[in-house]
C-alpha cells in the first residue's frame, strides 16, 4: 500500500515540476476591491490554486470525519460499560450471595383494605 502511495505522490510531484518549468512567464493578478495588479509567474498562480483547493478539500473531509469519530468514541464507551457489566455478572455468578434478599412485603391480615361498596341506586 505504501508503494502505491509513494508512486502516486512521485507522479504528482513530477507533474507539478513540469508545470512550473513550462509556465514561467509572468501574469498579472488583480482582484476587484484592490486596484493594484500583482505580477507573478503563472506556475505560482496555478499551483497556488491547486494547493488552496487541496487544503479546502482536506478541511471538508476533516469536518465530515468529526461525526464518525464521535460515534466511534461513544461506541467505545458503551462497549467498555458492557464489558464491565459482564465482569460484574461473572463475579456474581462465581460468588453468589448466601441468602437472596427478600423482595415481597406481606401486610398483616387486618391491614388489607376492604372493597368500596356502591351506594344504592347508582348505576
Quick take:
This protein has 123 residues and is mainly alpha-helical.
Give your account of this protein's structure.
- By secondary structure, this protein is mainly α.
- It has one domain (2-93).
- It has two helices and two strands; from the N terminus they run H-E-E-H.
- Strands 1-2 form a two-stranded antiparallel sheet.
- Helix 1 (2-22) packs antiparallel against helix 2 (42-94).
- The longest helix is centred in the middle third of the chain and has 53 residues, at 42-94.
Enumerate the spans where pLDDT stays under 50 for 5 or more consecutive residues: none
- The helix/strand class is mainly alpha
Distance between the termini: 85 Å
Principal-axis shape: elongated
Q: Please state the CA-atom Rg, rounded to the nearest Å.
A: 38 Å
Largest sheet: 2 strands, antiparallel
Binned, the helix content reads 55-70%
Percent of residues in β-strands? 5-15%
State the helix count. Answer: 2
**What is the strand tally?**
2
Q: Largest sheet, order of strands side by side?
A: 1-2
Count of the separate structural domains = 1
What does the average pLDDT come to?
A: 86
SSE arrangement, N to C: HEEH
Oligomer category: single chain
Amino acid at each position: 500500500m505504501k508503494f502505491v502511495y509513494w508512486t502516486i505522490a512521485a507522479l504528482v510531484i513530477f507533474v507539478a515540476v513540469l508545470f512550473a518549468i513550462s509556465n514561467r512567464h509572468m501574469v498579472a493578478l488583480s482582484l476587484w476591491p484592490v486596484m493594484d495588479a500583482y505580477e507573478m509567474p503563472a506556475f505560482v498562480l496555478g499551483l497556488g490554486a491547486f494547493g488552496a483547493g487541496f487544503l479546502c478539500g482536506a478541511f471538508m473531509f476533516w469536518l465530515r470525519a468529526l461525526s464518525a469519530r464521535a460515534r466511534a468514541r461513544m461506541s467505545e464507551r458503551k462497549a467498555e460499560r458492557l464489558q464491565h457489566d459482564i465482569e460484574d455478572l461473572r463475579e456474581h455468578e462465581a460468588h453468589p450471595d448466601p441468602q437472596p434478599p427478600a423482595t415481597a412485603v406481606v401486610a398483616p391480615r387486618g391491614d388489607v383494605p376492604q372493597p368500596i361498596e356502591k351506594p344504592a341506586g347508582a348505576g
